């Protein structure tokens, strides 16, 4: 595996798109003169173990072929190692790829970006967020949307996207603000009655919902979107504007910036890159240039 490009593949991503995208991506990379190896885990923990072994064995690059869940595993394998990351976005969300201007569901174009960046010597340094030993590339969120995720994960019926729609309706019926305490960098504690708090290394989550629309992955700072206490009617009015980032101009929304943020609230769980982090309090910090991403910004 030494000096090969390793494709970390989730064959089920994007309703099978991960499996369908792996072959054309591998073909483009081989045509560019690179040996290619596939890494497919039995489950998430096995995939991460195999990816870390590939990096330790001297992989030229690790290329995630799948959605944001697989990219999150890949970040945990390469962050801080010097091994560059490529992304062939084949999931339903693809928010990490979107933040970096990478092709979406175009495996040949994405692989060509990877090959071109390797030929040019390198990749673009990209910031990541970190909570303890957990890395995230896009958004950490607590409050309403995390409660929706938490409820949906506990539900056994219905299946698919409808499960999240039902969870949203249930959480809207029980809508309540939480008494958040925020500490930005070394500043004083701030008190916010908030419906949700989103800490953005990247701009979007949930497949293009631009909850932190001005967040950048190269400035060493988080954008922190605080949606204050509001009625169901107000929240329903604000939510559609998240798609294009217009919510930040609403009177109930505050945007803050910091390199380190501590969140405390009586919330059951926070989520980062769509995965649960556990309950609050927690401290997230930016790690500038934590990973080199091949083909970013092209």
UniProtKB/TrEMBL annotation:
A cellular component term from Gene Ontology for this protein is: plasma membrane
Signal peptide limits: none
GO biological process terms, alphabetically, are:
phospholipid biosynthetic process
Q: Which UniProt keywords apply?
A: ATP-binding, Kinase, Lipid biosynthesis, Lipid metabolism, Magnesium, Metal-binding, Nucleotide-binding, Phospholipid biosynthesis, Phospholipid metabolism, Transferase
A single Pfam family it belongs to is YegS_C
Entries under NCBIfam families matching the protein: PRK11914.1, YegS/Rv2252/BmrU family lipid kinase
Q: What is the designated name of this protein?
A: Diacylglycerol kinase
Source organism of this protein record: Streptomyces lonarensis
């Amino acid at each position: 595996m030494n000096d090969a490009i390793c494709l970390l593949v989730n064959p089920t991503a994007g309703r099978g798109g991960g499996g369908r995208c792996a072959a054309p991506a591998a073909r483009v990379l081989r045509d560019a003169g690179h040996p290619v190896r596939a890494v497919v885990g039995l489950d998430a923990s096995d995939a991460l173990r195999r990816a870390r072994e590939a990096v330790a064995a001297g992989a030229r690059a690790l290329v995630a072929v799948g959605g944001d869940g697989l990219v999150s595993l890949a970040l945990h394998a390469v962050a801080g190692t010097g091994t560059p990351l490529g992304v062939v976005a084949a999931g339903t969300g693809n928010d990490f790829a979107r933040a970096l201007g990478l092709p979406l569901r175009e495996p040949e174009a994405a692989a060509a970006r990877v090959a071109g960046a390797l030929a040019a010597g390198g990749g673009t340094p990209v910031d990541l967020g970190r909570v303890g030993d957990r890395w995230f590339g896009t958004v950490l969120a607590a409050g309403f949307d995390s409660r929706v995720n938490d409820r949906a994960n506990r539900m056994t019926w219905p299946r698919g996207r409808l499960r999240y729609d039902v969870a949203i309706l249930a959480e809207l019926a029980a809508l309540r603000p939480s008494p958040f305490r925020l500490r930005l960098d070394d500043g004083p504690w701030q008190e916010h009655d908030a419906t949700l708090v989103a800490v953005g290394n990247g701009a979007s989550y949930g497949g293009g919902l631009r909850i932190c629309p001005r967040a950048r992955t190269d400035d060493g700072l988080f954008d922190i979107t605080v949606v204050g206490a509001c009625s169901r009617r107000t929240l329903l009015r604000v939510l559609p504007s998240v798609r294009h980032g217009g919510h930040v101009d609403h009177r109930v929304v505050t945007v803050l910036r910091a390199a380190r943020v501590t969140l405390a609230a009586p919330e059951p769980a926070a989520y980062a890159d769509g995965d649960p982090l556990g309950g609050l309090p927690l401290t997230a910090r930016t790690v500038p240039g934590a990973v080199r991403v091949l083909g970013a910004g092209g």
